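User: For my dataset I need records formatted as: sequence, then structure tokens, nothing else. Please produce one.
Assistant:
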Amino acid sequence: MVLSIMTFVFIFIWFIYGWVIASSKKGSECGEKEDTKGWYIFLLVILIFFTVIFSILICLLLCLCCCLCFLSGAEGSDNRLRSGQINQVISSLSRVPYNENEHENDCAICMCPFDKDSAITQLKCNPQHYFHDECIERWVKEGNNSCPHCRAPIDDVDRIRAMMEGGEWEFSEEFKKSEKKS
């Protein structure tokens, strides 16, 4: 590993020094003389080749960093649950009896019809968002804390995190408004 880094540093220094020589006044004089013209062209070809390679490597490195940031879930990390929070979110889900007059016929997660005597889970985000108990529990156990329909949070993770850590938790303005409505 150290040898690879030293080799890379050596090539990079040689690369910069080569461009300094090629772009200097003495470098252009080398290109004009017959006995050094071949070496000057060889130097330019090598420098252009390494410039292209370094440019490609830098672009790949930047793309890799962007992909890693995207795949790590940095954007939606607030709606991901830790293992200790999953049971608390599941216990906060409200179960209601299925009523074919009020509810649609199929679960939006598994696309299977509801049984007439089954209990379904209705989420707080919208009274029309309901699922089989098993389906929404499996969804939450995978670490999801968002409604499969609208992606609204199922439960306030900050409140759960504060309760788990035994710390104090200040209600957000949005949560206070939602509590006043219910």
